[in-house]
Amino acid sequence: MAGALLLSPATRADDTEAPKSSESTPKPMAREFGLSDLAPRLMFHGFADVTANIYFDDVEGVGKSSHNYFALGELDLFIVSHLADNVSFLSELVFESNTDSETAVELERIFIKYTVSDRFWISVGRHHTALGYWNEAYNHGLLLQPTVARPDVLNWEEHDGILPMHSVGLAMGGRVFRGPWGFEYAANIGNGRGLTSRQVQTAFDVNDQKALTLRLSASHEAKGRLLFGPMIHLDMIPADPATTGREGEESERIAGAFVTYRDDRFELLSEYYYVRHEDLLTGAIYNSPGYFLIGLLNFGKLKPYGGYDRLDVDTADPYYGSEITPLKRSLLGLRWDLNSFNAIKFEVRHDIRPGVHSNGLVVQTAFIF
Amino acid sequence: MVSWSRPRSFSRALRATLGGALVAAVIASAAAAPAEAVEDYAIVVSPDVAVKSISVEQLRRLFLFREKYWKPGRPVKLIFSEDDLEPQSFLLERIYRSDYPSLRRLIVEKLYQEEIDLAPKVVATDEVAVAFVASGRGLIALVRANTVHGTDAKLVAIDGILPGASGYALRR
User: Fold this and answer.
1) Is residue A239 scored above 90 in pLDDT?
2) Chain B residues 4-63 within an 8 A CB cutoff of chain A
């Protein structure tokens, strides 16, 4: 089974694991592992996707129209490096084309991580914020997520998302197990929000107040695995005197919860977030809840799924601006896993935005390399 | 009469002989048939791992990369043998409850999710896995129990029961 070696394409024995003497080294072992490393071990992989879209829109006061197009998705390159038994490095670089067909590059994640034990690890750099399950489980890897697109409430900052998906600073976490139960915590202390919701403050913080995120979760493993927990995020959004309505600072408080369940036949994912912004100058309060529920059946290579996705963003909130609009989306799809590293997803959607109803058919091939 | 009786008695004798032989053959074959093939699988760890017994739940957590440290500063390192990765293998069926392609994707997922920073190593056979576990630190492997002989690798009980004993969990 030569293909089995592909499971660990970049592994080599290191000095901590090497047999005690060359005389005692079985020949197959020597052939498999070669000599000890003289440099850190590094793995390089990537995700990519291509999506075909057909949309039929019905715009109030304008009428019906349709449009279709192919879209290159993100080219996501990630590197993982083993520096020592307790020290690792990860970076994730994403190339993405926008609607003007210009390609932008963004460093999505980069951090060094120190792990003491299962109970405690700490890392410093740019991370995906510990919000719920989806943001850290699937990241930018569209192959990994069940649906074609992320739920609207989990859109990236630059894609009109309402949540702080990235955090620059410290991240820490740990877990313990008691029988079939597991308990986990994860936290971020970071620069927090910038002047607009699209900004991630990577090299500077406009104010000195740091954002704090804390997520707790519990898991139970029996026939399937249940994972659930709450989260909270606190931040102070700096004032932006150049923008009307943003003269004062806004306090940001986000509360949320998530639940996932997966067994051999069924998978469920659901997350809920409630964003509360308070303008400290005017006292105005803006509330923006959002949630999604996705269910998936597992028939081996074929996985039909369905879901509901809703975002009730407060359009009066000057921090989000007019580009972020409420959405109600129903979707049905079929995921076809051609092999371990490539899936094709067929999805139909019905979207309702203010003044616009649209039906879409999207087909996506997503893969890892 | 005689001419008929002899053939009848010959026929009866022949039938009796053949019947008896058939019954005897069936009994003999049943007696000679091996008992239903039962194989125990063993968990072996490196000599430095201070663990004598683990639960099936913990074993799954270790192989699914959820529990990743034996103790502070001592990471768990999995070794697979190619035998483990064959279709219908014990490891895939009973520990991962999955198939080989899904295991490969799991490894990449765990790398991407920062759960692991190295992919597990794969060796050619159970014997090599045992030799490697014996000579390394923090290593663990699942192997056929009959491949664990005269080695420094430590045999770990499952829920307090060792391979070969009644009630051992890793058996099929």
Assistant:
1) yes
2) 57-58, 60-61
pTM of the model: 0.84
Q: pLDDT digits over B23-58, tens only?
A: 445 444 444 445 567 889 999 999 999 999 999 999
How close A95 gets to chain B, by Cα (Å)? Answer: 17
Per DSSP, the residues of A304-319 read EEEEEEEE---TT-TT
Residues 6 or more apart in contact with residue A157 via CB below 8 angstroms: A164, A165, A166, A197, A198, A199, A200
CA angle, residues A122, A252, A290, in degrees to nearest 5: 95
B165 lies in some domain: no
Determine, for residues A9 and B119 on separate chains, whether the beta-carbon distance falls below 8 Å: yes
Flag whether B172 is in a domain. Answer: no
Hey, how many other C-beta atoms are within 10 angstroms of the C-beta on B163? 21
Domain assignments of chain A as residue spans, ordered by start: 122-368
What is the rounded distance in angstroms from the CA atom of residue A25 to the CA atom of residue A212? 51
Q: Are residues B123 and B153 in the same domain?
A: yes
Q: Is A286 strand, coil or helix?
A: strand
Q: Which CATH architecture has domain A122-368?
A: Beta Barrel (2.40)
Judging contacts by C-beta atoms under 8 Å, the chain A residues touching residue B95 are none
Structure tokens at B17: 């002989």
